[in-house]
Amino acid sequence: MCLEKQSLIIDRIDLGAVGSPIGRGCVAPGVERMGGTTVSTMKQLDNLSGLEEGAKRACRSNRPVLVSRTRRAPNLDPLSFFASGAGTQGARNFWSDPGREETLVGLGTAWRTESGPQSKNRYEKVERDWAELIRGALREPADVPRGAGPLLMGGFSFDPIGEHTSLWEGFSDASFILPRFLLTAVRDGVWLTVNAVITPEDDPEEMSQRLAEEEDQLVDAAVQGYIPETHPSYDAVEVEPERWRQAVAQAAREIREGQLEKVVLARELRLHSQETIRPASVLKRLQEQQPHSFLFAVERGDACFVGASPERLVKKEKHHLYSTCLAGTYPRGSDPAADQELGSQLLRDVKNRQEHAVVVNMIVEALREGCTSIQVPEEPVLYKVRDVQHLFTPVEGTAHPDTTLLSIVERLHPTPALGGYPQERALSRIREMEAMDRGWYAAPLGWLDFRGDGEFACGIRSGLLRNKSASLFAGCGIMGDSDPVSEYEETRMKFQPMLLALGGKKR
Ligand SMILES: C=C(O[C@H]1C=CC=C(C(=O)O)[C@@H]1O)C(=O)O
Ligand SMILES: [Mg+2]
Known about the structure:
This protein is an alpha+beta fold. Mean pLDDT is 90; it is low at 1-45. It is built from 12 helices and 22 strands. The chain has a domain at 3-224. It has a 22-stranded mixed β-sheet that branches. Helix content is 33%, strand content 32%. Helix 2 crosses helix 5 and helix 6 packs across helix 12 (484-502). The structure holds the ligand C=C(O[C@H]1C=CC=C(C(=O)O)[C@@H]1O)C(=O)O and magnesium ion. Magnesium ion (MG) is lined by residues 328-329, 355, 476-477, 490.
Protein backbone atom coordinates (compact mmCIF):
# COMPACT_ATOMS: atom_id res chain seq x y z
CA MET A 1 0.00 0.00 0.00
CA CYS A 2 1.45 3.39 -0.89
CA LEU A 3 2.03 6.12 1.67
CA GLU A 4 -0.36 8.36 -0.16
CA LYS A 5 -3.02 5.74 0.39
CA GLN A 6 -2.44 5.55 4.12
CA SER A 7 -2.77 9.26 4.64
CA LEU A 8 -5.88 9.27 2.47
CA ILE A 9 -7.51 6.55 4.51
CA ILE A 10 -7.00 8.59 7.66
CA ASP A 11 -8.70 11.54 5.95
CA ARG A 12 -11.51 9.30 4.87
CA ILE A 13 -12.06 7.95 8.36
CA ASP A 14 -12.15 11.49 9.67
CA LEU A 15 -14.77 12.29 7.09
CA GLY A 16 -16.74 9.20 7.96
CA ALA A 17 -16.47 7.67 4.47
CA VAL A 18 -16.48 3.93 3.80
CA GLY A 19 -15.07 1.59 1.14
CA SER A 20 -11.69 0.53 -0.13
CA PRO A 21 -9.72 3.06 -2.11
CA ILE A 22 -7.17 0.61 -3.45
CA GLY A 23 -7.31 -0.19 -7.14
CA ARG A 24 -5.16 -1.44 -9.98
CA GLY A 25 -4.23 2.01 -11.18
CA CYS A 26 -2.86 3.16 -7.83
CA VAL A 27 0.80 4.07 -7.82
CA ALA A 28 3.34 1.99 -5.97
CA PRO A 29 5.20 3.45 -2.97
CA GLY A 30 8.07 5.64 -3.96
CA VAL A 31 6.58 6.78 -7.28
CA GLU A 32 7.03 10.48 -7.88
CA ARG A 33 4.60 12.63 -5.94
CA MET A 34 3.13 15.90 -7.18
CA GLY A 35 3.56 18.61 -4.52
CA GLY A 36 0.06 20.14 -4.37
CA THR A 37 -2.71 18.43 -6.28
CA THR A 38 -4.16 21.56 -7.83
CA VAL A 39 -2.03 21.65 -11.00
CA SER A 40 -4.65 22.07 -13.72
CA THR A 41 -2.43 22.02 -16.76
CA MET A 42 -0.65 18.89 -17.83
CA LYS A 43 2.94 19.04 -18.83
CA GLN A 44 2.96 15.61 -20.40
CA LEU A 45 2.17 15.44 -24.06
CA ASP A 46 1.12 11.89 -24.59
CA ASN A 47 -2.07 10.17 -23.60
CA LEU A 48 -0.47 7.61 -21.37
CA SER A 49 1.48 9.97 -19.19
CA GLY A 50 -1.67 12.05 -18.73
CA LEU A 51 -3.65 9.02 -17.73
CA GLU A 52 -0.90 7.86 -15.39
CA GLU A 53 -0.86 11.24 -13.76
CA GLY A 54 -4.66 11.11 -13.54
CA ALA A 55 -4.51 7.66 -11.96
CA LYS A 56 -2.08 8.90 -9.30
CA ARG A 57 -4.33 11.80 -8.55
CA ALA A 58 -7.37 9.51 -8.42
CA CYS A 59 -5.59 7.34 -5.88
CA ARG A 60 -4.49 10.26 -3.77
CA SER A 61 -7.93 11.81 -3.67
CA ASN A 62 -9.89 8.57 -3.93
CA ARG A 63 -12.20 10.13 -6.49
CA PRO A 64 -12.51 9.98 -10.29
CA VAL A 65 -10.22 12.35 -12.17
CA LEU A 66 -10.94 13.81 -15.57
CA VAL A 67 -8.03 13.71 -18.01
CA SER A 68 -8.61 15.73 -21.16
CA ARG A 69 -6.29 16.27 -24.07
CA THR A 70 -6.91 18.45 -27.15
CA ARG A 71 -4.98 18.64 -30.39
CA ARG A 72 -5.48 19.76 -33.95
CA ALA A 73 -7.20 17.32 -36.32
CA PRO A 74 -7.15 19.08 -39.69
CA ASN A 75 -8.56 16.28 -41.86
CA LEU A 76 -11.80 15.70 -40.07
CA ASP A 77 -15.20 16.80 -41.34
CA PRO A 78 -17.83 17.16 -38.56
CA LEU A 79 -20.66 15.34 -40.30
CA SER A 80 -18.45 12.43 -41.40
CA PHE A 81 -17.15 12.23 -37.86
CA PHE A 82 -20.74 12.08 -36.57
CA ALA A 83 -21.55 9.33 -39.07
CA SER A 84 -18.41 7.38 -38.11
CA GLY A 85 -19.69 7.13 -34.52
CA ALA A 86 -22.86 5.23 -35.45
CA GLY A 87 -21.67 2.35 -33.24
CA THR A 88 -20.76 4.40 -30.13
CA GLN A 89 -23.52 2.95 -27.93
CA GLY A 90 -26.08 5.58 -28.88
CA ALA A 91 -24.30 8.57 -27.45
CA ARG A 92 -23.71 11.02 -30.27
CA ASN A 93 -24.22 14.77 -30.00
CA PHE A 94 -24.09 17.34 -32.80
CA TRP A 95 -24.21 21.11 -32.44
CA SER A 96 -23.66 23.95 -34.87
CA ASP A 97 -24.58 27.61 -34.48
CA PRO A 98 -26.19 29.57 -37.36
CA GLY A 99 -22.94 31.41 -38.23
CA ARG A 100 -21.23 27.98 -38.28
CA GLU A 101 -18.64 29.54 -35.99
CA GLU A 102 -18.63 26.53 -33.72
CA THR A 103 -19.51 23.03 -34.81
CA LEU A 104 -19.19 20.39 -32.09
CA VAL A 105 -19.51 16.65 -32.50
CA GLY A 106 -19.38 14.42 -29.44
CA LEU A 107 -19.01 10.64 -29.73
CA GLY A 108 -19.28 8.19 -26.86
CA THR A 109 -19.47 8.84 -23.15
CA ALA A 110 -16.55 9.57 -20.85
CA TRP A 111 -18.93 10.67 -18.07
CA ARG A 112 -22.56 11.74 -17.76
CA THR A 113 -24.99 13.41 -15.44
CA GLU A 114 -28.76 12.86 -15.47
CA SER A 115 -31.79 13.82 -13.47
CA GLY A 116 -35.19 12.20 -13.34
CA PRO A 117 -38.80 13.41 -13.36
CA GLN A 118 -40.11 15.94 -10.85
CA SER A 119 -36.55 17.19 -10.37
CA LYS A 120 -36.90 20.80 -9.31
CA ASN A 121 -33.18 21.52 -9.07
CA ARG A 122 -32.02 19.88 -12.31
CA TYR A 123 -30.05 22.94 -13.51
CA GLU A 124 -28.22 23.25 -10.23
CA LYS A 125 -27.49 19.53 -10.14
CA VAL A 126 -25.85 19.54 -13.57
CA GLU A 127 -23.75 22.55 -12.61
CA ARG A 128 -22.76 21.05 -9.27
CA ASP A 129 -21.84 17.63 -10.72
CA TRP A 130 -19.84 19.29 -13.48
CA ALA A 131 -17.98 21.66 -11.12
CA GLU A 132 -17.08 18.66 -8.96
CA LEU A 133 -15.62 16.77 -11.94
CA ILE A 134 -13.77 19.78 -13.34
CA ARG A 135 -12.17 20.48 -9.96
CA GLY A 136 -8.88 18.63 -10.04
CA ALA A 137 -9.11 17.78 -13.76
CA LEU A 138 -5.97 17.45 -15.86
CA ARG A 139 -6.20 19.40 -19.10
CA GLU A 140 -3.70 19.75 -21.86
CA PRO A 141 -2.99 22.23 -23.39
CA ALA A 142 -4.00 25.00 -21.00
CA ASP A 143 -5.40 27.16 -23.77
CA VAL A 144 -7.92 25.69 -26.21
CA PRO A 145 -10.41 27.43 -28.54
CA ARG A 146 -13.98 28.01 -27.43
CA GLY A 147 -15.92 24.79 -27.96
CA ALA A 148 -12.88 22.53 -27.43
CA GLY A 149 -11.51 20.87 -24.28
CA PRO A 150 -13.70 19.27 -21.66
CA LEU A 151 -17.36 20.19 -22.13
CA LEU A 152 -20.83 18.75 -21.69
CA MET A 153 -23.35 18.28 -24.49
CA GLY A 154 -27.04 17.61 -23.90
CA GLY A 155 -30.11 19.33 -22.60
CA PHE A 156 -33.29 19.30 -20.60
CA SER A 157 -36.85 18.18 -21.09
CA PHE A 158 -39.47 20.87 -21.66
CA ASP A 159 -41.40 20.18 -18.47
CA PRO A 160 -40.23 17.82 -15.70
CA ILE A 161 -43.70 17.93 -14.11
CA GLY A 162 -45.78 17.03 -17.18
CA GLU A 163 -46.68 13.51 -18.28
CA HIS A 164 -43.71 11.38 -19.42
CA THR A 165 -44.51 8.68 -21.98
CA SER A 166 -42.41 5.90 -23.51
CA LEU A 167 -42.02 8.02 -26.68
CA TRP A 168 -39.13 9.85 -25.02
CA GLU A 169 -37.50 6.82 -23.40
CA GLY A 170 -33.79 7.49 -22.90
CA PHE A 171 -34.26 11.27 -22.62
CA SER A 172 -34.32 12.21 -18.97
CA ASP A 173 -35.22 15.63 -17.58
CA ALA A 174 -31.58 16.61 -17.66
CA SER A 175 -29.05 14.58 -19.61
CA PHE A 176 -25.51 15.74 -20.30
CA ILE A 177 -22.61 13.78 -21.69
CA LEU A 178 -18.91 14.53 -21.52
CA PRO A 179 -18.01 13.02 -24.90
CA ARG A 180 -15.24 10.46 -25.10
CA PHE A 181 -14.20 12.13 -28.38
CA LEU A 182 -15.12 15.71 -29.22
CA LEU A 183 -14.52 17.26 -32.60
CA THR A 184 -14.56 21.06 -32.65
CA ALA A 185 -14.60 22.93 -35.96
CA VAL A 186 -14.01 26.67 -35.50
CA ARG A 187 -12.59 29.48 -37.68
CA ASP A 188 -9.14 28.66 -36.41
CA GLY A 189 -9.32 25.02 -37.57
CA VAL A 190 -10.45 21.62 -36.39
CA TRP A 191 -9.59 20.17 -32.98
CA LEU A 192 -10.04 16.77 -31.40
CA THR A 193 -10.43 16.41 -27.64
CA VAL A 194 -10.14 13.02 -25.96
CA ASN A 195 -11.70 12.81 -22.50
CA ALA A 196 -11.28 10.06 -19.96
CA VAL A 197 -12.40 9.82 -16.37
CA ILE A 198 -10.01 7.63 -14.49
CA THR A 199 -10.75 6.02 -11.14
CA PRO A 200 -8.41 4.37 -8.65
CA GLU A 201 -9.51 1.01 -10.11
CA ASP A 202 -8.48 1.79 -13.70
CA ASP A 203 -5.28 0.72 -15.37
CA PRO A 204 -3.91 3.74 -17.27
CA GLU A 205 -1.99 1.62 -19.75
CA GLU A 206 -5.01 -0.45 -20.70
CA MET A 207 -7.16 2.65 -20.90
CA SER A 208 -4.69 4.48 -23.08
CA GLN A 209 -4.52 1.55 -25.48
CA ARG A 210 -8.30 1.25 -25.67
CA LEU A 211 -8.69 4.97 -26.34
CA ALA A 212 -6.06 4.92 -29.06
CA GLU A 213 -7.78 1.99 -30.80
CA GLU A 214 -11.23 3.60 -30.62
CA GLU A 215 -9.84 6.87 -31.90
CA ASP A 216 -8.12 5.15 -34.84
CA GLN A 217 -11.35 3.43 -35.82
CA LEU A 218 -13.42 6.61 -35.66
CA VAL A 219 -10.87 8.72 -37.46
CA ASP A 220 -10.33 6.12 -40.21
CA ALA A 221 -14.07 5.87 -40.81
CA ALA A 222 -14.48 9.66 -40.76
CA VAL A 223 -11.65 10.19 -43.23
CA GLN A 224 -13.44 7.90 -45.69
CA GLY A 225 -16.24 10.47 -45.45
CA TYR A 226 -19.21 8.12 -45.74
CA ILE A 227 -22.56 9.70 -44.83
CA PRO A 228 -25.60 7.48 -45.33
CA GLU A 229 -28.03 8.79 -47.96
CA THR A 230 -31.51 7.47 -47.35
CA HIS A 231 -34.77 8.31 -49.09
CA PRO A 232 -37.39 6.48 -47.11
CA SER A 233 -41.06 6.79 -47.89
CA TYR A 234 -43.41 7.54 -45.05
CA ASP A 235 -46.92 7.03 -43.81
CA ALA A 236 -47.78 10.25 -42.01
CA VAL A 237 -50.38 10.67 -39.28
CA GLU A 238 -51.33 14.06 -37.83
CA VAL A 239 -52.12 13.56 -34.15
CA GLU A 240 -55.64 14.85 -33.48
CA PRO A 241 -55.59 18.00 -35.64
CA GLU A 242 -59.23 18.86 -34.95
CA ARG A 243 -58.74 18.61 -31.20
CA TRP A 244 -55.71 20.90 -31.58
CA ARG A 245 -57.72 23.56 -33.45
CA GLN A 246 -60.39 23.39 -30.74
CA ALA A 247 -57.70 23.83 -28.08
CA VAL A 248 -56.46 26.93 -29.94
CA ALA A 249 -60.00 28.37 -29.99
CA GLN A 250 -60.42 27.60 -26.29
CA ALA A 251 -57.03 29.13 -25.38
CA ALA A 252 -57.86 32.30 -27.36
CA ARG A 253 -61.14 32.57 -25.41
CA GLU A 254 -59.34 32.23 -22.08
CA ILE A 255 -56.88 34.91 -23.15
CA ARG A 256 -59.72 37.27 -24.10
CA GLU A 257 -61.26 36.60 -20.68
CA GLY A 258 -57.97 37.64 -19.07
CA GLN A 259 -57.04 34.24 -17.61
CA LEU A 260 -53.60 34.46 -19.23
CA GLU A 261 -51.81 36.59 -21.85
CA LYS A 262 -50.35 34.02 -24.20
CA VAL A 263 -49.90 30.26 -24.53
CA VAL A 264 -47.89 28.24 -27.04
CA LEU A 265 -49.74 25.13 -28.21
CA ALA A 266 -47.93 22.44 -30.15
CA ARG A 267 -48.92 19.34 -32.07
CA GLU A 268 -47.27 16.21 -33.38
CA LEU A 269 -46.91 14.57 -36.76
CA ARG A 270 -46.01 10.87 -36.70
CA LEU A 271 -44.14 9.28 -39.55
CA HIS A 272 -43.46 5.61 -40.18
CA SER A 273 -41.01 4.47 -42.77
CA GLN A 274 -40.01 1.09 -44.16
CA GLU A 275 -36.34 1.88 -43.68
CA THR A 276 -34.39 2.86 -40.58
CA ILE A 277 -34.04 6.65 -40.50
CA ARG A 278 -30.39 7.66 -40.21
CA PRO A 279 -29.69 10.76 -38.11
CA ALA A 280 -26.53 11.59 -40.10
CA SER A 281 -28.47 11.64 -43.34
CA VAL A 282 -31.11 13.96 -41.81
CA LEU A 283 -28.41 16.26 -40.42
CA LYS A 284 -26.70 16.41 -43.79
CA ARG A 285 -29.88 17.68 -45.43
CA LEU A 286 -30.55 20.14 -42.61
CA GLN A 287 -27.03 21.45 -43.06
CA GLU A 288 -27.68 22.05 -46.76
CA GLN A 289 -31.21 23.41 -46.39
CA GLN A 290 -31.11 25.47 -43.18
CA PRO A 291 -28.02 27.68 -43.25
CA HIS A 292 -29.47 30.20 -40.77
CA SER A 293 -30.46 27.80 -38.00
CA PHE A 294 -28.75 25.99 -35.17
CA LEU A 295 -28.33 22.35 -36.13
CA PHE A 296 -28.53 19.77 -33.40
CA ALA A 297 -28.73 16.05 -32.77
CA VAL A 298 -28.90 14.46 -29.35
CA GLU A 299 -28.73 10.69 -29.50
CA ARG A 300 -29.69 8.61 -26.48
CA GLY A 301 -29.81 4.85 -27.03
CA ASP A 302 -31.71 4.01 -30.21
CA ALA A 303 -33.40 7.43 -30.44
CA CYS A 304 -32.10 10.72 -31.76
CA PHE A 305 -33.64 14.17 -31.31
CA VAL A 306 -32.70 16.21 -34.38
CA GLY A 307 -33.59 19.66 -35.61
CA ALA A 308 -32.73 23.00 -37.18
CA SER A 309 -33.82 25.68 -34.73
CA PRO A 310 -33.62 29.38 -35.56
CA GLU A 311 -33.99 30.26 -31.87
CA ARG A 312 -31.14 30.86 -29.45
CA LEU A 313 -32.07 30.67 -25.80
CA VAL A 314 -28.79 32.02 -24.45
CA LYS A 315 -25.10 32.11 -25.23
CA LYS A 316 -22.41 32.93 -22.67
CA GLU A 317 -18.92 34.02 -23.61
CA LYS A 318 -16.99 35.21 -20.57
CA HIS A 319 -19.28 37.83 -19.03
CA HIS A 320 -21.25 38.50 -22.24
CA LEU A 321 -24.75 37.06 -22.52
CA TYR A 322 -26.73 36.90 -25.75
CA SER A 323 -30.37 35.89 -25.99
CA THR A 324 -32.95 36.24 -28.75
CA CYS A 325 -36.65 36.91 -28.86
CA LEU A 326 -38.09 35.07 -31.83
CA ALA A 327 -41.88 34.98 -32.13
CA GLY A 328 -44.35 36.09 -34.76
CA THR A 329 -44.45 34.21 -38.05
CA TYR A 330 -45.36 34.76 -41.72
CA PRO A 331 -44.70 32.65 -44.81
CA ARG A 332 -41.88 33.38 -47.28
CA GLY A 333 -42.82 34.86 -50.65
CA SER A 334 -42.36 33.03 -53.92
CA ASP A 335 -40.15 35.81 -55.34
CA PRO A 336 -38.08 38.59 -53.69
CA ALA A 337 -40.76 41.26 -54.11
CA ALA A 338 -43.52 39.10 -52.67
CA ASP A 339 -41.20 38.04 -49.86
CA GLN A 340 -40.40 41.65 -48.99
CA GLU A 341 -44.10 42.56 -49.05
CA LEU A 342 -44.93 39.70 -46.67
CA GLY A 343 -42.06 40.81 -44.43
CA SER A 344 -43.41 44.37 -44.20
CA GLN A 345 -46.89 43.04 -43.49
CA LEU A 346 -45.46 40.93 -40.65
CA LEU A 347 -43.67 43.97 -39.20
CA ARG A 348 -47.01 45.86 -39.15
CA ASP A 349 -49.23 42.96 -38.02
CA VAL A 350 -50.76 43.80 -34.63
CA LYS A 351 -51.36 40.20 -33.47
CA ASN A 352 -47.80 39.12 -34.33
CA ARG A 353 -46.26 42.27 -32.80
CA GLN A 354 -48.07 41.57 -29.51
CA GLU A 355 -47.12 37.89 -29.64
CA HIS A 356 -43.50 39.08 -30.01
CA ALA A 357 -43.67 41.83 -27.37
CA VAL A 358 -44.70 39.37 -24.63
CA VAL A 359 -41.45 37.48 -25.32
CA VAL A 360 -39.25 40.58 -25.33
CA ASN A 361 -40.67 41.82 -22.01
CA MET A 362 -40.14 38.50 -20.26
CA ILE A 363 -36.60 37.89 -21.60
CA VAL A 364 -35.48 41.41 -20.68
CA GLU A 365 -36.87 40.98 -17.14
CA ALA A 366 -35.27 37.55 -16.72
CA LEU A 367 -31.85 38.73 -17.93
CA ARG A 368 -31.96 41.90 -15.85
CA GLU A 369 -31.76 39.83 -12.65
CA GLY A 370 -28.45 38.23 -13.65
CA CYS A 371 -26.87 41.21 -15.43
CA THR A 372 -25.29 44.54 -14.63
CA SER A 373 -26.50 46.00 -17.94
CA ILE A 374 -28.80 45.05 -20.83
CA GLN A 375 -29.06 46.25 -24.42
CA VAL A 376 -32.26 45.73 -26.37
CA PRO A 377 -33.32 47.41 -29.63
CA GLU A 378 -36.67 49.23 -29.64
CA GLU A 379 -38.11 47.50 -32.70
CA PRO A 380 -37.92 43.93 -34.00
CA VAL A 381 -36.42 43.09 -37.39
CA LEU A 382 -37.12 40.13 -39.69
CA TYR A 383 -35.34 36.79 -39.38
CA LYS A 384 -35.80 34.72 -42.51
CA VAL A 385 -35.29 30.98 -42.68
CA ARG A 386 -36.09 28.69 -45.60
CA ASP A 387 -39.80 28.17 -44.94
CA VAL A 388 -40.91 31.10 -42.75
CA GLN A 389 -39.98 34.59 -41.59
CA HIS A 390 -40.08 35.69 -37.95
CA LEU A 391 -39.97 38.83 -35.85
CA PHE A 392 -36.59 38.94 -34.16
CA THR A 393 -35.17 41.04 -31.31
CA PRO A 394 -31.66 40.26 -30.05
CA VAL A 395 -30.99 41.00 -26.35
CA GLU A 396 -27.48 41.33 -24.92
CA GLY A 397 -26.34 41.66 -21.35
CA THR A 398 -23.26 41.85 -19.17
CA ALA A 399 -23.47 39.11 -16.57
CA HIS A 400 -22.77 39.56 -12.86
CA PRO A 401 -19.58 37.67 -11.93
CA ASP A 402 -21.62 35.01 -10.12
CA THR A 403 -24.21 34.49 -12.88
CA THR A 404 -23.81 31.03 -14.37
CA LEU A 405 -25.01 29.87 -17.78
CA LEU A 406 -27.47 27.33 -16.37
CA SER A 407 -28.88 29.81 -13.88
CA ILE A 408 -29.82 31.95 -16.90
CA VAL A 409 -31.23 28.94 -18.75
CA GLU A 410 -33.36 28.24 -15.68
CA ARG A 411 -34.59 31.83 -15.49
CA LEU A 412 -35.47 31.94 -19.16
CA HIS A 413 -36.99 28.53 -19.80
CA PRO A 414 -39.65 28.38 -21.05
CA THR A 415 -39.83 31.86 -22.56
CA PRO A 416 -43.26 32.94 -23.82
CA ALA A 417 -42.09 31.91 -27.33
CA LEU A 418 -42.27 28.27 -26.20
CA GLY A 419 -44.50 28.25 -23.11
CA GLY A 420 -46.56 31.39 -22.64
CA TYR A 421 -47.25 34.11 -20.11
CA PRO A 422 -47.64 34.05 -17.14
CA GLN A 423 -45.32 31.07 -17.18
CA GLU A 424 -46.93 28.79 -14.57
CA ARG A 425 -50.45 29.35 -15.83
CA ALA A 426 -49.34 28.67 -19.42
CA LEU A 427 -47.51 25.49 -18.39
CA SER A 428 -50.53 24.10 -16.62
CA ARG A 429 -52.76 24.84 -19.65
CA ILE A 430 -50.21 23.14 -21.95
CA ARG A 431 -50.29 20.04 -19.69
CA GLU A 432 -54.07 19.97 -19.88
CA MET A 433 -54.70 20.93 -23.50
CA GLU A 434 -51.99 19.27 -25.62
CA ALA A 435 -52.54 15.69 -26.79
CA MET A 436 -48.83 14.86 -26.59
CA ASP A 437 -45.68 14.46 -24.54
CA ARG A 438 -43.35 17.33 -25.48
CA GLY A 439 -40.28 15.54 -24.13
CA TRP A 440 -37.33 17.64 -25.27
CA TYR A 441 -39.27 19.57 -27.93
CA ALA A 442 -39.00 23.36 -27.32
CA ALA A 443 -36.59 22.72 -24.43
CA PRO A 444 -33.04 24.05 -23.89
CA LEU A 445 -30.29 22.02 -25.52
CA GLY A 446 -26.66 22.83 -26.10
CA TRP A 447 -23.29 22.73 -24.42
CA LEU A 448 -21.44 23.94 -21.34
CA ASP A 449 -17.66 24.01 -21.09
CA PHE A 450 -15.06 23.83 -18.31
CA ARG A 451 -14.90 27.64 -18.11
CA GLY A 452 -18.67 27.93 -17.61
CA ASP A 453 -19.18 29.24 -21.16
CA GLY A 454 -21.48 27.68 -23.74
CA GLU A 455 -24.70 28.08 -25.65
CA PHE A 456 -28.28 26.79 -25.58
CA ALA A 457 -30.91 26.80 -28.32
CA CYS A 458 -34.63 26.03 -28.06
CA GLY A 459 -35.32 22.59 -29.50
CA ILE A 460 -37.93 23.58 -32.11
CA ARG A 461 -38.27 22.66 -35.85
CA SER A 462 -37.33 19.26 -34.61
CA GLY A 463 -38.20 15.60 -34.51
CA LEU A 464 -37.49 12.51 -32.50
CA LEU A 465 -36.20 9.65 -34.66
CA ARG A 466 -36.32 6.07 -33.41
CA ASN A 467 -35.51 3.28 -35.85
CA LYS A 468 -38.24 3.53 -38.52
CA SER A 469 -40.41 6.16 -36.80
CA ALA A 470 -40.23 9.90 -36.45
CA SER A 471 -42.33 12.25 -34.35
CA LEU A 472 -42.17 15.84 -35.56
CA PHE A 473 -43.31 18.77 -33.43
CA ALA A 474 -44.50 22.30 -34.17
CA GLY A 475 -46.27 24.90 -32.12
CA CYS A 476 -47.34 28.50 -32.21
CA GLY A 477 -48.03 31.39 -29.92
CA ILE A 478 -51.74 31.76 -29.24
CA MET A 479 -53.09 35.25 -28.50
CA GLY A 480 -56.65 36.47 -27.84
CA ASP A 481 -57.28 37.11 -31.54
CA SER A 482 -55.69 33.87 -32.81
CA ASP A 483 -57.58 32.14 -35.60
CA PRO A 484 -57.36 28.31 -35.25
CA VAL A 485 -57.08 27.78 -39.00
CA SER A 486 -54.21 30.26 -39.49
CA GLU A 487 -52.38 28.88 -36.45
CA TYR A 488 -52.82 25.39 -37.90
CA GLU A 489 -51.32 26.64 -41.20
CA GLU A 490 -48.42 28.12 -39.23
CA THR A 491 -47.64 24.72 -37.70
CA ARG A 492 -47.75 23.18 -41.19
CA MET A 493 -45.03 25.60 -42.32
CA LYS A 494 -43.01 24.83 -39.21
CA PHE A 495 -43.04 21.07 -39.95
CA GLN A 496 -41.48 21.74 -43.36
CA PRO A 497 -37.77 21.83 -42.38
CA MET A 498 -37.91 18.38 -40.81
CA LEU A 499 -40.18 16.92 -43.49
CA LEU A 500 -37.80 18.06 -46.18
CA ALA A 501 -34.75 16.86 -44.27
CA LEU A 502 -36.26 13.41 -43.83
CA GLY A 503 -36.09 13.35 -47.58
CA GLY A 504 -38.99 11.04 -48.03
CA LYS A 505 -42.10 10.74 -50.08
CA LYS A 506 -45.51 10.37 -48.55
CA ARG A 507 -47.01 7.01 -49.44
C1 LIG B 1 -42.98 27.02 -31.00
C2 LIG B 1 -42.43 27.18 -32.20
O1 LIG B 1 -42.04 28.41 -32.68
C3 LIG B 1 -41.90 29.53 -31.82
C4 LIG B 1 -40.75 30.31 -32.32
C5 LIG B 1 -40.90 31.27 -33.30
C6 LIG B 1 -42.18 31.70 -33.67
C7 LIG B 1 -43.29 31.26 -33.02
C8 LIG B 1 -44.64 31.75 -33.41
O2 LIG B 1 -44.74 32.68 -34.22
O3 LIG B 1 -45.66 31.23 -32.94
C9 LIG B 1 -43.20 30.35 -31.84
O4 LIG B 1 -43.30 31.13 -30.68
C10 LIG B 1 -42.22 26.04 -33.12
O5 LIG B 1 -41.62 26.23 -34.18
O6 LIG B 1 -42.60 24.90 -32.77
MG1 LIG C 1 -46.96 32.65 -34.18
